Amino acid sequence: MSVVQLPWDEKTKTLDMPVPSSEALLPDAQERLEQLATRIRQDIRTTSHHQDWIPRSENEGQPRVLDVLIIGGGQAGLGVAFSLQRERIDRVAVVDAGDDPRRVGPWHRYARMHTLRSPKRMKGIELDVPSLHIQRWFEACYGEEAWAKTDLVPRLDWNDYLVFYRWVTSIEVHHKSFVTAVHRPETADGPFAIDVQESGTAPSSVQTLYARRIVFALGLIGGGTAYTPDMIRSLPRSKWFHTEEEFDVSQCKGQRIAVLGGGASGFDNAGTALEAGASEAAVFMRRSTVPCNNPLRWMEFPGMQEHYFDLNDEQKVEFSLFNGGLPQPPTQHTIWRCFSYRSFQLRMAAEWVKVEDTGKELVIHTMDEHGTADTYHADMIIAATGYKVDLTLRPELKEFYADILTWRQAYPPSEGTAVAASPYLGSGFEFTPSHSQAPWISRLHHFSTGARTSMGVTGNQLSGIYGGLKRMAWSMATAITKENWPELMRQFRVFEHKEVMNVVYRFGGP
Ligand SMILES: Cc1cc2nc3c(=O)[nH]c(=O)nc-3n(C[C@H](O)[C@H](O)[C@H](O)COP(=O)(O)OP(=O)(O)OC[C@H]3O[C@@H](n4cnc5c(N)ncnc54)[C@H](O)[C@@H]3O)c2cc1C
Question: Which residues cross the membrane (predicted)?
Answer without folding.
Answer: none
